[in-house]
Amino acid sequence: MSSQSTTIANAVKDLNEGMFLPGIQREFVWSKDQIRQLFDSIMQGYPIGSLLFWEVRDDFAREQLKYQFIQHYIEDGVYPSSFSDRAYRNPKIDDKFDDLPSKLNLVLDGQQRLTAFYIGLCGSYTEKKKYQRRREPDSWLRKKLVPSQTRLEFASGSVN
Predict the structure, then answer these.
(1) How far apart are CA 72 and CA 67, in angstroms?
(2) How deeply is 57 buried, as exposed, middle or buried, from its count of CB atoms within 10 A (0-12, 13-18, 19+)?
(3) Tens of pLDDT along 105-115?
(4) Res. 102 pLDDT band, cuts 50 70 90
(5) Which residues are paired to 54 by β-bridges?
């Protein structure tokens, strides 16, 4: 058994390329506040714990039920059909991924943190405005993590 170190940037770069979620993992459940707190913890130098990966190869890797990480998260499962670029559930890897590498890393521990990094560094978090209809596109705000004067915040942007 060996231990390896990597940077957050390298781990995020490998998501949905050579690193996936096994079928035994639960869905992403963190709120935007939990994502922000994770980034605040890093900025303050607090430890965020280790990650646990399962390296699988060849036929065994292909046979495993695998899911992608969510990059553009929407906080509710009922949303306008025009929001096809966002996900509430982790997309299952199907036959369209014919070019998967023969060696994969499946994340056994750290999925919430890695997904939070992926959303915060490369993606977005879409939330519904209070008391608005779920099926109306104008009822939603798409946010990206940006630094403010005192800490990181999710800033609103266009839903398009």
Answers:
(1) 15
(2) exposed
(3) 999 999 999 99
(4) confident
(5) 106
